[in-house]
Amino acid sequence: MNHSLENDSERIAALSKYDILDSLSEQEYDDIAFLASQICDTPVSTITFIDDKRQWFKSRVGLPHQESPRSTSFCSLALESADPFVNIPDLFQDEAYKKVALVNGLKAGFYASIILFDPQTNTPIGTLCVIDSKPRTLTENQILGLKKLGNQVSNLLKIRLKNKALQVVNTELNIQYDELTQFARVVSHDIKSPLNNIIALSNLLKEEYSSQLDETGVQYLNYISESSDSLKQFVDAVLKYHKSNNEEFLKKESIDLTEVTKAVFKSLNSKNNFELLIEPNLTIVSNAIAIEQILLNLLSNGIKYNKNEQVILEVKLFENDMDYKLTVSDNGMGISEAHFATIFSFCKTLDVKDRFDSYGTGIGLSTVKNIVDKLEGTISIASKISEGTTFTILFKK
Predict the structure, then answer these.
(1) Residue 49: CB atoms within 10 Å
(2) Domains, the chain, with CATH or none
(3) Quick check: 60 and 49 in contact, CB under 8 A?
(4) Quick one: pLDDT band at residue 77, thresholds 50, 70, 90?
(5) What confidence tier does 3 reach under pLDDT thresholds 50, 70, 90?
(6) Which end of the chain is more exposed for a tag (fewer CB within 10 A), N or C?
(7) E-strand spans in the chain?
(8) What is the pLDDT of residues 224-235, one digit of tens each?
């Protein structure tokens, strides 16, 4: 016996969108099949999907096998019905169902199902069914319960379709992101070489030929040098930002935070103009590269955006049984609360010149945020204009 449906190829195409055939068991579907069996008091209940040759059970109660031939399927017959609810109290009182019952070795029986439709094409793709080896009549409440469970299966299918679409979009976005990341790295490296040449040549011109140029000519050379230095800082910042996506940031070890902080601060304080406050013997278990990058960016910002004669930076570490709290504070110019929500955005700048008369790249804090996210931590900011800023970072142990 071979049941066929009108426009069966279209129906099977609709079913294929869900990628549900031969999928793994899912608790949500299993729970619905169990409840259907309990509500209708039947030994068998299934959530069934029909392709061209078989019926496959996403969930089943009372059946040992995962699938069976379509020729032995009550559900295949049910899909031919125009009614979304099929109820056969006595299989042997319906010729078509009687033939299938005999193929299955039944001498009596009952079958009822809710038809599952693809909402986009309104074609039947499966059923939620209950089966018994003896005739029975469902009560109104049992029928209502079965219909409500059928609605839940339909909702799960809609969610499955949406999740599948989101996965496709997510995959495409990841591919685009990887391509952009690679592009940024290549471009940044390719820019650095000629940029270094421009800087070197402009410095050489100033040293060798400044005496032969008028004031305007020297000023132009200074513009070239300053612009090149600014562009180099931007390129370096881009490279650091993309480096922060590296998986090496997930490796953890015990770190002497005091010594790491002092080393980073020393690299920023070559003329010993600034002051660092930090307690001795602070240790943290995290990623050394990540902590170094976080401190480098935050301490650097604390120096640059600080026009006080005495620049003071302070690093503190607190810990409990659950996490570490790292704070980096400065007595700088501060940040308006209006900018707190966007301060960590990539390339977001506040159009404020620093103590060296330069504008920021807008990459430093986004790099810090990216690293903190990679470490599954959180970062927050507290600041007052002209009083200073404190960044607080929480890391789980």
Answers:
(1) 24
(2) 8-161 (3.30.450.40), 245-396 (3.30.565.10)
(3) no
(4) very high
(5) very low
(6) C
(7) 44-50, 54-61, 67-69, 85-88, 110-118, 123-132, 253-256, 274-278, 283-286, 311-319, 323-330, 378-384, 388-396
(8) 877 677 667 666
Tell the residue number behind the tokens 């421009």, with chain if given: 198
d(CA 204, CA 13): 71
Higher pLDDT, 338 or 251: 338
Say which amino acid occupies 147. K
Residues 244/266, Cβ–Cβ less than 8 Å: no
Whether the CB-CB separation of 131 and 146 falls below 8 Å is answered with no
How many residues in the chain? 397
- Separation of alpha carbons 184 and 192, rounded Å: 12
CA 313 – CA 354 distance, rounded (Å): 16
**310 and 355 in contact (C-beta within 8 Å)?**
no
pLDDT in tens, 193-212: 787 888 888 888 888 888 88
Q: Which uninterrupted H or E stretch holds 185?
A: helix 140-209
> Residue 6 pLDDT > 60, yes or no?
no
Q: How far apart are CA 225 and CA 199, in angstroms?
A: 6
Q: Which residues are CB-neighbours of 11 under 8 A, at least 6 positions away?
A: 5, 79, 118, 123, 124, 125
193 burial type by CB count under 10 A (0-12 exposed, 13-18 middle, 19+ buried): exposed
Residues 290, 292, 294, CA angle at the centre, nearest 5°? 70
Q: Packing angle between helix 27-40 and helix 140-209, nearest 10 degrees?
A: 170
- pLDDT band at 2, cuts 50/70/90? very low
Q: Which phi and psi angles does 110 have, rounded to 5°? A: -140, 150
How far is 379 from 344, CA to CA, in rounded Å?
Answer: 10
